[in-house]
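Input.
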Amino acid sequence: MLNKALRLLRVFNDYKSNFLAERLEISTSYLSEIESGKKVPSLELLQKYAKVFEIPLSTILLMSEGFEKEPDNFKAQLSKVLMKFLEKVEEQGDPEKV
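Output.
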């Protein structure tokens, strides 16, 4: 689910793939592979994500936590809420509408 959280962060911030890839110092194709779940980002790359989005790395990890494995866990429930929020933002297409 990390790949989904990273993609939703990009969409929420209205970043195009090529813009984010440049900021992360990776290729657009590698970014696409990360967002599709074909590749797993390194810890170093996750730290770059945190810097680009100006959020703690722990927040990114919390968002991606597998909530379906622990449905009664508070962190898992919070993760679920965050992911649903970002999905709604993506559906709207404009962060200002939410």
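Residues 2-97 form a domain with the 434 Repressor (Amino-terminal Domain) fold (CATH 1.10.260.40).
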